[in-house]
Amino acid sequence: MKLLNVNIPTLQAERNFDLTIKNGRLDAITVHDEYMKADRPFSYSFSDHERGEELVWDAEGRILLQGMVDAHMHLDKSHSLLVAKNQSGTLFEAIHSYTKASETFTDENVLGRMRKTALTALAHGTSTIRTHIDFNTRVSEETTFRGVRMALQLKQELAPYMNIQVYPMLPYYPYEDSDRKKIERMLALGIDGVGGAPHISERPLECIDEIFAYAKQFDLPIDLHTDESDDPTVDTVLYIADKTMEFGYEGRVVVDHLCSLAAMDHDKAAAVIQKMKEAELGAITLPAANLYLQGRQDRGIVRRGVTRVSELIDGGVKVATASDNVCDPFHPFGRGDLLQIAQLTGYTAHMGGRQDMITLLKMITEVPAKLIGSQLCGIKVGELADFVLVDSKSVEELFADLPQTRAVYRSGKWLAMTNTTSQFELTPTIKL
Ligand SMILES: [Zn+2]
What we know:
This protein is 34% helix and 21% strand.
């Protein structure tokens, strides 16, 4: 199959690319300024693609992105809002309500919700997901292990189509022997890395010590909910940076949220960013959930809870943006669409210039791919053909429209096609 006249803004925004795909791999890529003529305009309909590899399509300058990487989701919690309610909208009620509801879940229920969210994300162009999974050792044993078991099952089930990394969150309370036995059993199940939320702990530094010790023992990377608080004195990220260097874990630790960084004074924030760079911590901003959860107690000027995205990038820290929670008590909205999250990041981080828009696209593709150690290397000859073709012809149009019309290619075939028209008709009595 050939795709002519593709726009790949993350490579070179102003030129046209032609891609040749053979046996599911990128066989040739050419770049040119002029428009290459082809007879067949690209179709967002499966039936037109039945002849597969023989066809030559004219993408007519549409934007192509490498398969997007949602580096921070909670598949186990997604779409649980109807049973796990949250009247106050606070993080505290969300945790309490979800823990209570989780005792009523079944394998089928959890797996079904996870599958729905993962496949919706795939249809939007996401081909890799890192999901955090609750691991609470103080509920029934079945509930403790259900999320991890179902996530590993889904990972295997969807492996032909997408990559899923499973990061169970180690509990934030001090461990007793019975907790340790369960944690050690879980860590041996074939998970991808260790998660957690140590800032919630009454003794966060001890909690971080535990997480690093277990990660080292099982030789696993670390990805932590970090300083998800409006309080500028909350700065466990500094200790995480120290532990990272002490354990030789540079490049293997990602810190997410970093809300308190936004509340700190400028000098302290600059020192934190410098230390993060030194320890090679990756950062993930989760603007949707944090706009919703943070700043709730503020009156007058309300803090927004979104970390210092541009300053982290300028300070040399790799920053991705991701979905976090989807339709659950922690965050009641969302559709697993990283373009929507990139647009929200543009709003909250004041990133709307042309170069900013390209940076935003990198924050949902190549940057998170690096942060999570993805084996995929993007749009390169010899690589897996793993991409989404979006019905927009410029980054400006893409961010304005967030078109749903997309085609997702991977595993040697088109996996998802969505065709909604962005055109509308007005009654002839109205003139634009
Ligand atoms: Zn999260």
